[in-house]
Design a protein that fits this description.
Structural class of chain A: mainly alpha
Order of helices and strands of chain A: HHHHHHEEHHHHHHHHH
Helix content of chain A: over 70%
Strand content of chain A: under 5%
Helix content of chain B: over 70%
CATH topology of chain A: ABC transporter involved in vitamin B12 uptake, BtuC
Number of strands of chain A: 2
Order of helices and strands of chain B: HHHHEEHHHHHHH
Largest interface: A-B, 48 and 47 residues
CATH topology of chain B: ABC transporter involved in vitamin B12 uptake, BtuC
Structural class of chain B: mainly alpha
Radius of gyration of chain A: 19 Å
Number of helices of chain B: 11
Radius of gyration of chain B: 19 Å
Oligomer: heterodimer
Chain lengths: 321, 285
């Protein structure tokens, strides 16, 4: 209930507040909403199942590219293209997940980091001339609802909001289902879970595939709903974006879906706010000062709230296993 | 034939530097259990400090080098004191985010001063030599020998000095080491300073070959992390072997398919991990 209230307080007013020249803020909110979907997928994987992933920008980018290629190069309806954004990263995750989920801690971190770098490298290298190389893909069509294309910032934002709500709803069902309990069980003690007959690697694999598909879907949404209608490997698949996604869930709070949303909002808005503030400092270039404060915020939040901002409010007592 | 020797030689000389970076990861990991993602920034700092100091007229080069290493070590010590020590019992992910925060701060602070690419002169010696039909620069030979020297010195330090043994005790069991009266905080700080210093040496060695700029740290750090994990996290000989493997994978990868250098290098890393999940020199899992 508290979560729904928070959701309404944070996400509804912008529709009415940001108008005219401030419509630009709505497009930032739209991107924050899309990132929030990725952050939730990481909540399920890193928070509930306890597996780190440093390749979610890879799945996000793969989703974005699948949707864009399907709609631009093959003329498939954008709505159906979204299915590719969901399925292609999912299938890749299934393929690489089978050996990957057996790894632990930093070995898992390394393997997923490598997967992310490989996806980025392949997208950038332009195999068979389908990804457009470093330049990426431009003029991606818009989603069409009842014969009207969603092209305005308000339209993008409302569409993202709807998707975010639906995905939040299903994620909520998922983490409270029996499968959610299985995930928490293998997180708190894999050995105990194994001894009562849970197939630990199977649960991990399912969580990995599901999480990758969610991130891919978010990538597809980014293709159609970001203000530029343009994607390139550095924007959607870079290693730094993977790191940013992980930072979102850790800063927001690993152990609740709201944490991911809060983290996504903070890390998307912080640079924008800092940009406004640092414009007025003499001597130092604003973008550098912005990065310095951004980095210090990471450190400060983690020192004050080692479990992330949200879990403190919700009083979760357990630590990561 | 000479082609293969050439790639392997180039791979080893660049891989030794990755190995040094990997050793930095291992040192902090062993004593604190933290994977320090700011390690790459230490490498960048070492390179950039040496570039800046070598521009001061009338200063002997060796003093510049020593100063660059010392300054970077200071940054490492300061980092432990301000960002790592205040967080007690942090989980793996929390600590990772903190070190990423530190790396963002260091990178942007250097970016405030300059965003250009720099190069420093190579260490003295003939321009290039030929081994088995392959040519090798004297800087590459310097890199390999200095790398090996540092590994030996570090090994002797960890094996024969009291502080070194204390550091190994921390790696074995942190709680027990603290109970025995070892100053755990000081030792963690020392390991950060030490790994920053070794990172700085790696940075000074790589600057004559590939240039250095404020953005290079991330990439070099990733390669070092790969080397550390591939060799088996926490193992010093593993770090060097892992680093050299990454170096060779990278140079040969570029030959097999141009433009897919990183893709091939990381595919090899992942394949090795699948076959040996604990790394090459790693012990039990």
């Amino acid at each position: 209930m508290k979560k729904i209230l928070l959701f309404i307080i944070v996400f509804i007013p912008p529709v009415f507040l940001f108008k005219g020249e401030y419509a630009y803020f709505l497009s930032i909110m739209a991107i924050a909403g899309i990132y929030a979907i990725v952050a939730m997928s990481l909540n399920i994987l890193v928070g509930y199942t306890g597996q780190i992933s440093l390749c979610h920008a890879g799945f996000f980018g793969l989703g974005a590219y699948s949707a864009a290629i399907a709609s631009v190069s093959h003329g498939i309806n954008p709505w159906f293209s979204l299915a590719f954004a969901f399925l292609v990263p999912g299938m890749l995750a299934l393929l690489v997940g089978i050996p990957t989920v057996r790894l632990k801690e930093h070995y898992l971190a390394m393997a997923t980091l490598g997967i992310g770098i490989i996806i980025y490298g392949v997208l950038r290298a332009n195999p068979w001339d389908i990804t457009g190389g470093p330049g990426g893909i431009c003029s991606i069509p818009s989603l069409v609802v009842l014969g009207k294309a969603i092209e305005s910032d308000v339209g993008h934002y409302i569409a993202v909001l709807l998707f975010l709500s639906i995905i939040l709803f299903f994620s909520h069902l998922l983490v409270n289902s029996r499968f959610g309990q299985l995930m928490e069980a293998i997180n708190s003690s894999p050995h105990a879970a194994m001894s009562v007959g849970i197939n630990v690697n199977m649960v991990r694999l399912k969580a990995f595939v599901l999480s990758a598909s969610m991130a891919g879907l978010a990538g597809g949404l980014y293709s159609f709903l970001s203000p530029l209608s343009y994607i390139n490997p550095d924007d959607v698949a870079s290693v730094m974006l993977s790191v940013k996604f992980i930072a979102m869930v850790v800063i927001g709070g690993l152990f609740s879906l709201t944490g991911g949303i809060v983290g996504a909002l903070i890390l998307t808005w912080l640079p924008e706010l800092l940009r406004q503030v640092t414009q007025y400092t003499p001597g130092i270039s604003p973008s550098d000062l912005e990065s310095i404060i951004y980095g210090m915020a990471f450190i400060a939040i983690m020192i004050m709230y080692p479990r992330g901002l949200v879990s403190r409010w919700e009083g979760h007592g357990y630590s990561q296993g | 034939m000479s082609g293969i020797v050439q790639y392997i030689l180039t791979g080893i000389s660049i891989g030794t530097i990755y190995g040094l970076i990997a050793i930095g990861f291992d040192l902090t990991y062993n004593t604190t259990g933290i994977i320090n993602f700011a390690q790459g920034e230490f490498v960048m700092l070492g390179g950039m400090f040496s570039v800046a100091l070598l521009r001061i007229p009338g200063m002997p080069a060796w003093i510049c080098i020593v100063l660059a290493i010392a300054l970077t070590s200071l940054v490492g010590l300061a980092m432990e004191r301000t960002a790592i020590r205040p967080v007690k019992s942090a989980s793996l992910t929390t600590a990772i985010i903190i070190t990423i925060g530190v790396s963002i701060v260091i990178k942007a602070s250097v970016g405030c001063f300059t965003k250009d690419e720099f190069v420093i002169p190579s260490l003295p010696g003939p321009v290039s030599m030929r081994i088995l039909g392959a040519s090798i620069t004297s800087q590459a030979i310097w890199n390999m020998s200095i790398g090996m020297l540092i590994v030996l010195a570090l090994w002797a330090f960890l094996k024969y000095t009291f502080v070194g043994i204390a550091l190994r005790a921390m790696a074995e069991d942190r709680t027990n080491a603290a109970n025995l009266g070892l100053a755990a905080d000081r030792l963690s700080q020392l390991s950060f300073g030490l790994s920053a210093g070794i990172g700085a040496i790696a940075g000074i060695l790589i600057t004559p070959i590939t240039q250095m700029s404020w953005l290079r740290g991330t990439d070099l750090g990733l390669k070092g992390f790969c080397g550390a994990v591939l060799g088996g996290m926490g193992s010093l000989p593993g770090a060097i072997i892992g680093g050299i493997l990454i170096g060779i994978a990278e140079t040969t990868g570029n030959v097999i398919l141009t433009g897919y250098k990183d893709v091939i290098a990381f595919s090899i890393v992942i394949l090795v991990l699948y076959i040996r999940p604990q790394g090459i020199m790693g012990g039990r899992l």
